[in-house]
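Do me a favour: review this protein, sequence plus structure tokens, and tell me how the chain folds. Record follows.
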Amino acid sequence: MNQTAIFWPMICHALLVFCVYALISTRRKQAVKAGSAKVSQFRENQVEPPESLFARNNLANQFELPVLFHVVCLALYVTNGAGVVPLVLAWVFTLSRYAHAYVHVTSNRIRHRQPLFLTGFISVGILWLWLALHLLGLV
């Protein structure tokens, strides 16, 4: 298998982050236009209007667990450990992030969001376990 395939789930996650940036920008502009926010309040970013709050929270979330995802993918690539199993896990993580983001910026229903988060969390945990086993020469 081509080791560089591990970069595609990473690229797709980066695309998600850019989309969430675009969404928060759009929602903030709509809030200003509707009069529920002022441009000046975004300077210190202490008060987020309701229209963009879920998007802002999701954007912050894209820089938490996904950091561990990107690091482990790079480590697997560097050590030639980016085989089929890590690739599948990387895609599971990325797809779970898309689904999680969708729920987060729309209904924000915890009972729908939590299983999606756990799917990504578990897949990243297994990726780190796989890296450890790979470094030990066990996989």
User: Anything to note?
Assistant: The radius of gyration is 18 Å.
